[in-house]
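Suppose you are handed a protein chain with no further information: no name, no annotation, nothing but its sequence. What can you learn? This example shows the usual starting point.
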Amino acid sequence: MDSECQQQLYRIVEAEDRPTEKNVEEIIQPATENFSGKQGLITQHQLQISSGLAESLNSIKEDSEKGKGNQFRIEEKFPQKICVIDYLRENCSLICKDCDRFSDEDREKAEKKLKGLKVRVTHRRCAQKYTVNGLTNEMTRDLKFEVTESSGLKKDIGIIDYFVHVKKYTSAIRYQFLPCLDLVLKPGDESIYVPIEFCEILAKDNLNLQRIEFPTAEEMGHTILDTIRKDDGVKVNQFQIAMIKNKRSIVSAAVHRPPQLKLGSEKEITPVQKKGQYNLLNRRVYDSKAIDNKWGLLFFSNDPQPPPQWPSTIIQKFMSSLAKICTEIGMKMAEEPQLCQYQSMECFSDLAKLRLTLKNLHKKGLEILVCVMEAEKCPGYKTLKLVAETEIGLITQCCLLANVNKYCDLSCKQSPQYLANLALKINAKLGGIKAVLEQSPFGNSKVFIFGGDVKFPSSNDNSPSVAALVGSINNPACNRYLTRIRYQDSAEQHINQLADMAKDLIDEYRDINRGLPEKIIFFRQGISDYQLKRAVNKEIAALKQAVSKYEGKYEPRISFIVAQKSRRTRLEVAEEHNTYKWRSVPPGTVVENSPNSNCKQLNFLMCSHNGQSEKSRPTYYRLVYDENEFTLAQLQMFINDLCYTCVRSKEPLSLPPPLYYAHLAAYRGKHYAEASSSFALNLPKIPKLIHNNSMFFC
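A reasonable first move is to predict its three-dimensional structure. Written in C-alpha cells, the prediction is:
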C-alpha cells in the first residue's frame, strides 16, 4: 500500500470511536500529517509499516467471482451409513473397480477426505467405532504384518492370507490393488489394518463440519483486491471505501540511544546500539547480596530412592559452577551448600509432607533454596510456590534437570550465559540490583512507578481473574519492586481493589524512603480497546482515592500510561534506506503521531527491544492522563531508558519493567489459584505476601 492509503488504514485501526455513515468519508481522507519523524534524536530511518487492517483483510475468504460466497467447505451429511468405497466414488470422483489402483494424486485426495472419520467394520460383528488414521503405504495384496503362532514362533503373513486362512472370513477381498485403512480405537493405540471395502461410515458420527482448508494469505489478498477492482463486483463507491493499493507505506522514524548504566565493577557501561545488549561476564552487578553457605539444593526425582552415589557428579558440577558464576558477579556464594537433599516427586501429591519438608529446611536459616526438578512441566511447581511463598516464607529458585545436565560444565559455550541468568534471578529475589541508570530521568524528585496487569482465565475455565500491582520502592533508581495480588471476578477488566493495593505499596515506599512520592507514574496493560475508557477512569479514580487517605494536603502529580502489545502493526527497515544493514529495526525505534493529528493524547509506537525477525512488533503507548506535563520526547526517552533496567535480562525489554513484573506477578497468582484448587483449598489470602522486600516473582 502507498503512504497515503497506509496512513488511512492506520487511522481507522487506531480510532477509538467507530465511524458513522456521515464521517466515514472524513476518516478515510488522506492523512499525511498522521506520522512524522522526530528530528534530531539520532538519525532518521525509513520504515515500512504493515498495518493491522491490511492483515485483517487477508483473514477474509470470499470468492465473489464465482458467486460461491465464502469458501468454507461443509462436510456432507450422511442420511444413512455408507460404504467407504461408495463414499470415495461419490465425493472424490474415484472409480473403484476390482483392478483399479490409486495414483499418488488419488491417494492424497482419498486420505485427506477420510482422515479423522469414524467408521465401523463389516466383515465381523463388532460394535466398536474406529477412527481413520490414514491409508497404508502398501496395497492390500502386498501388505504383511507379524503374527505369533500358538507355538510361540513369529512370522510375517499377508493380510489376504490372514483374512482367508487364519480368520476364515467368508467375504472375499475384491479391491486388492487399493491400500487398507489404518484404524485406531483412540489416539496412541496400535494401528489396525482393514481392507477399505470392509468399512462403512456411520451416519450420526459424521454430521460435523469438515476440516476447513484456508487458502494462503497471498491468495486471499489477490481475491479481495480483484473483487474490489471488478466493475461487476462490490459497488465500492456506494460504501465510500477508499481504494487499497497493494503497497506498504514508507514513514519516518527516530531511534533513541541506549542509556548509560552503572554497574558495580566500573563507572558506567553503554549497551551496544545494534542489539541493546551488554555482557555481565567479568563484571559485578550494582548491588549484590552475599549468600555464603546459607543456601541449599533440593532435587526432586521420579525415583523414590536416591542413587547409591549422592549427590551425583552432575549435581556436584552444577553446584560448583553456579557458585563460581555468582561469586564472579559479586555474590559471595560457597561451592558447598548447607544441605543437598534428595526428594521424591511423590511429595507434591502429599501437601502435608511437602509442608513439613519445607518447614524443616526453613528452620536451618536458608537464604534461598535451589530446586532441581527432573520432570518437565511438573505440576508440583505450582504447589511448591504456593506453600513456600504464602505459608512458609522460603525463597526458591527452580530449574530443570535437563538444563542442569546441559549447562553444569563451564566448558560448554552457553553455560556461563545460562548460569549468569540464574544468578541474576537469585540476586533479585534476595533484594539485589543488577544495574541503575547513570542519569535519573526525574533528577532528585521522589517518584513512584506503578505497573498493573490482570490475568484472565481461559474461556472454559471458571477460575477468577488475577489482578497484580507492582510498585518501585527505591528512589531515584526505581528498579526494585514489591507486589500485591488480588483475585476478582473474571468479567472485570479493571483492577477492582486498586485503591487498597496502591495504598499498601505507597506505605512501603514511605517507610523505606522516609517520605511520600511527589510524582506517581502508572503503567497499565491488559485492557481491551472497547473497555479502555471505562477501566482507565475507574483506576484513576481509585489512585486518587488511595492518595486522599493520607493526612495533610497530599496531592502527588499522577500520569497514567496505557501500553498495548497485541496489535497487528509491524515495522521493518526499508531496504533502500537501510544504511546500517540491520536485519530488524534497532532498539529504541519510535514512530509517532504529529501534534497536528486528530488524536488528543500523546501516543506513539516504540520498539524498545531487539527484534528477532525482520518484522518487529512495536508496543503502542498512550498517555491518557497527565499531571506531570510530559513532552513527547521526555516520555519516549523515559520509557526507552526504563526498558534497560530489568533485573533478570541483559538486553532491553519490549515492555517497561513494571508491566513485565506485573505480568509475572499475575501469572504467579494464577499458579497459586490452580494449586489451591487441585487440593480443594480456599484461595490463598495474600493481603501482604511474606517477602515484603523480595522480588520473589521474577
